[in-house]
Amino acid sequence: HGASPGRGAGPEASELCETDELAALLRPDTGASDQGPVRYEADAAQSTPERASLSGNVEVNRGDQRLLAPRLELDRKTNIGYATEGAEGGTPQFAFRAKKAEIALDQNVGHYDDAEYFMGRSNAQGSAKKVVDDRDKAVTDLDQATYSTCKRGDELWQIRADTLKLDYNTGRGVAHDATVAIGGVPVLYSPYLSFPITDERQSGFLAPRLSSSSGNGFDLALPYYWNIAPNQDATLTPRVITDRGFQLGTEYRYLGTRGSGEFYGEYLPNDREAERDRGMVDLRARGAWFPGLSSSLIYDWVSDDDYFRDLGNQLDVVDTAYLQRTFDTTYAVPFGGVLLTRFQGYQTLDAPDLKRVPPYSRLPQMVYFGGWDHGLLRYDLRTEVVAFDHPTMVTGTRFDIEPAVSLPLEWSYAFVRPRVAYRQTQYQLDYPGNTGATNDTSPNRGAPILSLDSGLIFERPLGFGDSAFTQTLEPRLYYLRVPYRRQGDIPVFDTTLVNTSFNALFYDNRFVGTDRLGDANQLTTAVSTRIIGAADGRERMRLSLGQIQYFEDRRVALGADQLVDTGSSDLIAEGQVTLGRDWYLRIAAQWDPHNEEARRNAVDLRYRGERGAVFNIAYRYSNRGDPPAQGAPADTDQIDFTGVLPVNPRWRLFGRWNYSMLDEHVVDTFAGVEYSDCCWAVRMLGRQYRDYPQDEEAKNAFFLEFELKGLSSIGAGVDQFLNKSILGYTHPGSTSRY
Amino acid sequence: AASARALPEDRQQPVNLVADRAELNQNTGVAVYEGNVVVTQGTMRLTGDKVIVYTKNGEFERMESFGKPTTFKQKPAADKEEMFGEALRLDYSATTGVVVATTKAKVTQAKDVFTGDRIEYDVNKDIVRAQGKPNERVQIILQPRPEGGTAPAAPAKPQAGTPAQPKK
Amino acid sequence: CGFQLRGQANLPPDMARTYIKIGPGAGPDLATGLRRALTVNGVTVVDDPKAATATLEVSNEAVRRRVIVKGPGGTAQEYELYYDVTAAVTRANGTPLLPAETFHQSRDLQYDEAAVLGRDSGEILARRDMRQDAAWALLRRLQALAAQR
Q1: CA B131 from chain center: how many Å?
Q2: In chain A, which residues have their Cβ closer than 8 Å to the Cβ of C79?
Q3: Is the pTM of this model over 0.95?
């Protein structure tokens, strides 16, 4: 369970910006309707059925709108008020001061000339030759307008546009014939410009990213956002890389009622370093055909193996060398259960000195799993048919079925769950080349799986200070019996060791996947204790301890049979505690009693402070033992400090120090600083990292990101990298959940 | 637009006065009525605690009315809605057809409501002039016109009046 | 040391007949887990919303990954899986019994980098365990609310 949801975000706009002079004109949003009577107030008034003229501090109130003017002439026939000697006013979103104003009461539209305006939610200000504020349509049109979130008169950046439409329904502003000036100097002209005008985190445009690194030289990216329709948008990112050439990135997003999708693509014609065209594609889509039947697609492609290392602008942590192509269709079967049909393949990327074996493709896989309750009994069925394909290794079709019946008895203080299942697996194999002769092309395996899970729940009240808690003590016993079946001649398609964890102590197979069914005659003994808030029922602390006693030696292994005669499993301990709202500690330990050494230790300490202060420590130690358990991940011994330190509302520091004791050097470290002003922010970050932890050479990279607040896209470049690297990092003005 | 004339019939209608006490001064032509005073003339109706009526050679000229508040009601023209007025003091001139309400004055004309320190209502020209004072500004509530301009008022029925008889 | 067998822990009486609504972004197997947990605690799960005294809506089930350890092959060897689900219980008359609340769970998964297919099946198991823990945490919350009555 992550740390308590993030509290206190980064600096709020209000702290950094002086309040605009027009801000006081904004009206409270009481939701009052504009359709009610219009209330006027003045020092003096004269009214006839045709005409009313008010003078002396005239005030007009209608719903949540208010207008102030020295004089107001009201034509009662057309119901239009004319304030010819200047006027100012406001609605909950929009405030203005103008030389002349006309309010068309019946159409609920205000026309203001030579106006200055201020918008509350996006903290934006500007001026305009002509403003038409249509309250009913919630749209404000401005001619010859300027727009900026900077302090009035001291705009670091400003949009000057022929026309500007502020649409509160979509929360977007659209400028036509717009020029963006930075420091007063026009930087960019664009016939069309769209940006968010509410405070929600919407992508805007123009967050230039400048970076430099060995291998790429200077790298300037200039994203450009195009809001095609309320449910579609696109971001074009031209990018100049001095050592390589010009690259274009495009992102297109579609959100429909029955489906949605995101396409991201990059294309770099003739990369000078690699002397070839390069590109990548990341396509995600999902849709519901009709209730109960939905599909999802993931398709990744990259032109060459080093693409991510060279062009992943060093910011994306490469978290896979296997690019997935998966098309899933899930069907909720009327009589219960779910049928999943999957077509899946991978593009395998080799590392410079590591030729990777491509994984099997599933062309297709069909899995049905269902569960029915009948009185106290529960019936479960899982059946699967899958065709595995591979360029070089053995291929074949596997059929697997596992019906099960269980009697889950549960009371508030105890539970008993006996379960009986039978698993039958059948293969139809096709060995490439001449090895077919010696191998069994249609092995099969069938075995019963018997398990009895039981546990008691004890409780006692507990008091810490003035708050009351309940502490539980939960002993648990789990017996598993699976007779041995020879499986050495069955190829491993999708199977590996289960992830050792406290939960895994109660799994009915020590392998994950179908190609191995672990023989078992064992008893898991475990105990957990939790501390739960008596009033809110929220868990504050949990500590679990467990171990398996083996009554028979195990023989089934990932490869050929391998006799393991240890009498008990590693001792597994897991614990987590949430201290107040700020601190969260989690530990996991796995102790090998036979060799008397730790197999795995993991410690996570997380602190969430005020104003987005974040501090995390993650320590990981794992030791596969000698000989290393087959299929277990490589040994690790590393510690990872990450943090965000808000020095004051304007300055924030970021840092990471990820040191591998095994390799005795830093795997990834960066330090960054962010200065954020009222309407702009700049982030600088220096990074030293290794693509492979064991590399001797480290790579350096430097990033500079310049953000125009309220205009530029959020979550680009450095901000996205920090979000991925520092758990709990929040962009200024938003809150994180972790 | 032609200024709407008060209903001609009002000017010729007899003035009817009811009060608890009355004090008549023949030669000055000033009569003072006190206590639940009700003055009616055609569609005009005025109430007040104390009303001073000024007549000139037997012709009703003007009156001053005081009350908490003193109220005034009249139908300015056949096609106009009734107009209501109230204040602590009302001055009504029959000759000019102008009503002046002073202190905590409130005038309602065709569902529009005017409040202020001093409000003048010219019945003939159908003009309302309002004047505020520093901490008591003129307040006006104008009903949003239903689609298609001002609503036609219902045709007025002439009222049968009874001759004014000062009661001792 | 004061421990005794846990006493009767019932759910809020308003949930006597509960309809489980799968909101946007929530999978069917979460609903089956909740159905079992509610039935065991004496609540009848009804299929017709109109016959229900309360509606339990689960939505926005999300799973996210974060790399923790990079293996010698340059790719993730250990990553953290985050599971979120939002649950809310509203009475038949529309008043909230449990305002919408997000339940978090997380698991560390360690895999040999090459075990791509194995990793996916391992994730399915981890996801199932996290769903059960989230359902358990929701029940404890509801039982605490009932106890406060």
Answers
A1: 18
A2: 319
A3: no
